[in-house]
Amino acid sequence: MATTIERTSPEGLGAAAPALLSLAAAAFVAVTTEMLPVGLLPDIGAAFAVPESVIGLLVSLYAVMVAALAVPLTLLTARFARKPLLLATLAGYVVSNAMVAAAPVFAVVAVGRTLGGLTHALFFSLLIGYTPRLVSRAHLGRALSLVSGGASAGLVLGVPLSTSLGTAIGWRAAFAVLAGVAALTFVLVCLLLPGVENGPPGHTGDSVGRGALAAVAASNTLTFLGHFTLYTFITLVLLGSGIAPAMVGPILLVCGACGLISLWYAGRNLDRNPRRTVVVIFAVFIGAIVALGGTWPAGVAVVVAAIAWNGAFGAVPSIYQTHAVRTHAVTPELAGAWVNATANVGIAGGAAIGAGLLDSAGIWVLPWVSVALIGLGLLVILMSPRAFPSRAG
Predict the structure, then answer these.
(1) Which of the 8 DSSP states describes residue 203?
(2) What distance in Å separates the CA atoms of residue 93 and residue 116, rounded to the nearest whole number?
(3) Hey, where are the domains in the chain?
(4) Rounded to whole angstroms, how far apart are CA atoms 144 and 131?
(5) What is the mean pLDDT of residues 71-76?
(6) Higher pLDDT, 184 or 204
(7) Distances (CA, A) of 86 to 91, 228, 281, 299
(8) In the prediction, which pLDDT does 206 show?
(9) Which residues cross the membrane (predicted)?
(10) Following DSSP, what letter does each residue of 240-277 receive, concatenated?
(11) For every residue of 158-182, which 3-state class applies, written as one string?
(12) Options 3.40.630.30, 1.20.1250.20, 2.40.280.10, 3.30.70.1350; CATH of 207-382
């Protein structure tokens, strides 16, 4: 297959906005697809007489597959043209959701979700790698924040809305509607996204650049480990602080919405003073978790702290995506693959750490372990000025 299909010169944010928004829509579909089973576990389990714990593996195995396959799949597809490959991943989401919606037996659901996991392992590497080919270096942070907004919207709006739809008219309908949305997004991306030139596969930078990428990957892993050690059990944290079960959903919705605010802040400042922006976001991030741990189980204080903590986290993915690409150690796609893989190591590992601590020490210890891990991630940032510079390069 040809390595290029059409060359586009990097432009300003305004000129690239339609293409970036189409990528944001694709990210929305990807995250909604990944997380949709979470809200529908009881219904899917009842339909096939399968325990909810087994249905839960449909989500956790997603993260494991992405962690294991993001880098290998990116390397294997490095010589393929970017746009057709990205469209192929969107087609994968269509087929995955359609298979689940129409599944006559649970095995077909599992196969459909496996296809979704394979798709996801490659999709975000392509997404992160595509964005810097559409804009100039001076606009990279803002562009990646805009595209990341689609993923955040998937968590804030896509999952709750599709879950509500599934509850109202059936879980199969929710997956069928999402398959339709994915198909419409396929058409949107096909129309609005220009083709871009392929970069050379593998390493393109020197040992200093590769060291910087390693620092970004290490910090990303630690930060996601810390966040998901606590976030995986946020419902238990809220309920344990006296919050009524009916209020958990609205609180999580507010948490996600506040994440869009920090994403906006990162987008405005990552291209101006990236290091200061990162430190400010992490200061709020860590401070909020400390406040949560220090005030738990005082209900109102815990809710305020949880909103601030999750609000700050909303900017974290775009921070690591931007800095990984700016190391120039590897192609943008491979930089995205490392960010994607290490984030999912953190997601799966954080859930495991939290589960172990919950059984052995109790819920009160989770915020402090979370802070320790995220603090180590910040320490890597502070000790790596080449990876997290004061000026965008």
Answers:
(1) B
(2) 6
(3) 13-192, 207-382
(4) 7
(5) 91
(6) 184
(7) 9, 28, 31, 44
(8) 60
(9) 12-33, 53-78, 85-109, 115-131, 143-163, 169-193, 213-237, 243-266, 278-296, 302-322, 334-355, 361-382
(10) HTT--HHHHHHHHHHHHHHHHHHHHHHHHHTTT-HHHH
(11) HHHHHHHHHHHHCHHHHHHHHHHHH
(12) 1.20.1250.20
Tokens of 92: 């994968």
Q: Are 296 and 242 in contact (CB under 8 A)?
A: no
Residues 293, 298, 303, 308, CA torsion sign: negative
Token pair 């320790």 is found at: 372
* Joined tokens for residue 25: 């829509």
- Write out the H or E segment, with its range, that includes residue 375: helix 366-382
Mean pLDDT calculated for residue range 336-357: 87
- Domain covering 13-192: architecture: Up-down Bundle (1.20)
Q: Work out the burial of residue 18: count CB atoms within 10 Å of its CB; fewer than 13 is exposed, 13-18 middle, 19 or more buried.
A: middle
* pLDDT tens string 261-284: 888 888 888 888 889 999 999 999
32 exposed, middle or buried (CB, 10 Å; 0-12, 13-18, 19+)? buried
- Alpha carbon dihedral 101, 102, 105, 111, in 10-degree steps, equals -70
Question: How many other C-beta atoms can be found within 10 angstroms of the C-beta atom of residue 246?
Answer: 7
**pTM given for the model:** 0.82
Find the DSSP H helices in 77-206: 82-102, 106-130, 140-153, 159-169, 171-192
Helix axes 140-153, 316-326, angle to 10 degrees: 140
Decide: 251 and 306 in contact? Cβ < 8 Å.
Answer: yes
Residue 12's pLDDT is 60
Q: Which amino acid is at 346?
A: G
**82 pLDDT higher than 60:** yes
Answer yes or no: same fold for 13-192 and 207-382.
yes
Instruction: Of 300, 284, 306, give the one whose Cα is nearest residue 234.
Output: 306
Q: What are the respective helix, strand and coil percentages of the chain, to the nearest 5? A: 80, 0, 15
